[in-house]
Amino acid sequence: MEADELMALVADGDQKAFEELYGLVSGPVFGLVRRVVRDPAQSEEVAQEVLLELWRSAARFDPRRGSALAWVLTVAHRRAVDRVRAARAAGERERLEARRAHHPAFDQVSEEVEAGLEREWVRRCLDRLTALQRQSVTLAYYDGYTYREVAERLSLPLGTVKTRMRDGLGRLRDCLGGTA
């Protein structure tokens, strides 16, 4: 049987006809919905809604206005577009609410000034280190090298670098008031 004949039987409540119609249209319905919605889980949900609507509203199908498959795919397309629009609207509502609710938890200017002062304080303390200590600390903490990599870059034994680092960090801690 073709989809048009099956629709007439489904409109009369024929479950076997619906099973057959389902087999004919479920693939095209899911494919169309998947192209519009894109998300697989959402697409499955929308396709299921369309097929359920098909069972409930088969009596509304008018064969004089077009084929059953065209009617089913039109219903599927409309439902998929509705889902996409609803998701976009929900996302926009969330973004607007997030913008309304956004209040800086701090005074940005004072935070920037304080960070600048802290950087200057650290620079002054680094200047108090020996050149060798400053070089080791800078490579490790500002350039991101491991102690082993610092030793390789400076062509020094690892133990020497560790000693410089320990002594340099101790002096920094003392200079920064024990907060380092």
Automatic annotation (TrEMBL):
<dbReference type="InterPro" id="IPR036388">
    <property type="entry name" value="WH-like_DNA-bd_sf"/>
</dbReference>
<dbReference type="InterPro" id="IPR013324">
    <property type="entry name" value="RNA_pol_sigma_r3/r4-like"/>
</dbReference>
<feature type="domain" description="RNA polymerase sigma factor 70 region 4 type 2">
    <location>
        <begin position="119"/>
        <end position="171"/>
    </location>
</feature>
<dbReference type="Pfam" id="PF08281">
    <property type="entry name" value="Sigma70_r4_2"/>
</dbReference>
<dbReference type="InterPro" id="IPR013325">
    <property type="entry name" value="RNA_pol_sigma_r2"/>
</dbReference>
<keyword id="KW-0731">Sigma factor</keyword>
<keyword id="KW-0804">Transcription</keyword>
<dbReference type="InterPro" id="IPR039425">
    <property type="entry name" value="RNA_pol_sigma-70-like"/>
</dbReference>
<dbReference type="InterPro" id="IPR013249">
    <property type="entry name" value="RNA_pol_sigma70_r4_t2"/>
</dbReference>
<feature type="domain" description="RNA polymerase sigma-70 region 2">
    <location>
        <begin position="26"/>
        <end position="88"/>
    </location>
</feature>
<comment type="similarity">
    <text>Belongs to the sigma-70 factor family. ECF subfamily.</text>
</comment>
<protein>
    <submittedName>
        <fullName>Sigma-70 family RNA polymerase sigma factor</fullName>
    </submittedName>
</protein>
<keyword id="KW-0805">Transcription regulation</keyword>
<dbReference type="Pfam" id="PF04542">
    <property type="entry name" value="Sigma70_r2"/>
</dbReference>
<dbReference type="InterPro" id="IPR007627">
    <property type="entry name" value="RNA_pol_sigma70_r2"/>
</dbReference>
<dbReference type="InterPro" id="IPR014284">
    <property type="entry name" value="RNA_pol_sigma-70_dom"/>
</dbReference>
